[in-house]
Amino acid sequence: MPIDLAQVDWLYVVVLAIFVFIASVVANLLSFSRRWTAAATAALMFAVIFVFWTYYPHGLPLPTSISPQRSAVTTTVPAAPVAATPQRPQNPVTDITPPGMSR
User: Hey, where are the domains in the chain?
Assistant: First the structure.
């Protein structure tokens, strides 16, 4: 199946379905059961409710989707290590010879 049903936010789908149901009930009451008028009124009412819910800055904590908003992932690039000058060894020996081998 091309749609992964595990990824669907079902609570958000239910909320939108409730919006459609309310819009269609009110549209049927307003249009006196005329089918085409009720359908057009319901579509218009759903659009108004959806835009209000999603985009209107009403200050209420209404989510635009039920799932929590993901914050942007910020990655910090570590600073490049400073090239330090190599330190000289503390002992005076400058060559390495295996024990028992003499020059």
Answer: 24-67
Distance CA 75, CA 26 (A): 50
Question: How far is residue 20's CA from residue 45's CA, in Å, rounded to a whole number?
Answer: 8
| pTM of the predicted protein model | 0.46
CA 4-10-19 angle, 5° bins: 130
For the segment 3-41, what is each residue's pLDDT rounded down to a tens digit? 677 777 888 888 888 888 888 888 888 888 788 888 888
Are the C-beta atoms of residues 65 and 9 closer than 8 Å to each other?
Answer: yes
Alpha helices, DSSP H, located in the chain: 10-31, 35-55
> How far is 92 from 89, CA to CA, in rounded Å?
8
Within 8 A by CB and 6+ apart from 22, the residues are 49
Which tokens sit at 95? 């060559």
CA distance 33 to 30: 8
Cβ 41 vs Cβ 29: under 8 Å? no
